[in-house]
Amino acid sequence: MKTKLILALLVVSPLLGFGQKFKILSGSFEPLKGETEFNVQMDYSQVKFYKENMNEKQYIEKRKKEITADKGAAEADKWLSDWERTKSVQILDKVIAVTNKHNGKDHKYSAEGDAKYTLVVRPQWIYPGWYGGVMKEPSKLNVIFDFVETANPSKVVVSVNCTGAVGDIYPVGIPNTNDRIAEAFGQGGGAFVKFVKKNLK
User: Fold this and answer.
1) Which of 197 and 104 is assigned the larger pLDDT?
2) Is 164 in contact with 191 (CB distance < 8 Å)?
3) Across the chain, which distance is largest between two alpha carbons, in Å?
4) How far apart, in Å, are the Cα atoms of 58 and each of 48, 52, 53, 62?
5) Which CATH code is given to the segment(s) 19-54+91-199?
6) pTM higher than 0.85 for the full model?
7) Is the previous residue joined to 171 through a cis bond, with omega within 30 degrees of 0?
8) What confidence tens digit (pLDDT) does each residue in 177-197 have?
9) Deepest of 81, 124, 129, 153, by most Cβ within 10 A of its Cβ?
10) 48-49/21-27 β-pairing
11) What is the DSSP letter of 20?
12) 32-41, 59-68, 102-111, 127-136: which has the minimum mean pLDDT?
C-alpha cells in the first residue's frame, strides 16, 4: 500500500509544481457578458524562444542546425514543414478543442464565424522542452489572450496574461517537440476558459 502511494505521488508531484497564473492587463470582461460565441485567431508576431529570447527566425535556424547535425538535412526540412503545420493548424485546432471542451454549453469558440468578439492568442515566450525517454522536460508557454472587437481588431476589450502553461503528458512525455509545444497551448487554453467563465459569472 505504501509503495502504491509513493508511486502515485511520483506521478502527480510534477503536476503540482506547475500551474498557469492569470493576470488581467487591461479592460474588463463586462462587455462579453451575454455573448455565446467567440472567434479565435493566432498571432505569433511577438513570440520569443528559449531563455535567450530568440525570435522565430533564430529559433528555426537553431533547430534546423541541431536536427541536421543529428539526423541530416532532410529531417531538418521535415521538421520545418511540421512546425509550419503546427503553427497554422495544430495549435489553433487544439486551442479551439479545449476551449469548447471546458465550456460545456456556455460558449462556443470557432476559427470562422460572425461572432461580435474574437479571442486573439498571442504567444510571448516558448520553451520547447526536450524528450530523452526516461528523462524529459516539458515545454513551457507564456501567452497573452486578447478579446477584441471582430469589426475593429485594434479595440481590445480585455487583455489577460497567462504565465506558466506546461506542455506534457504525465508520466510518459511527448517525444515530438512541436506536439509538446501544441500541448502547452492546450493546457493554457483550457485553464484560460475556466478563468473566463469565472469572470463572466
Assistant:
1) 197
2) no
3) 60
4) 9, 10, 9, 6
5) 3.40.50
6) yes
7) yes
8) 999 999 999 999 999 999 998
9) 129
10) unpaired
11) -
12) 102-111
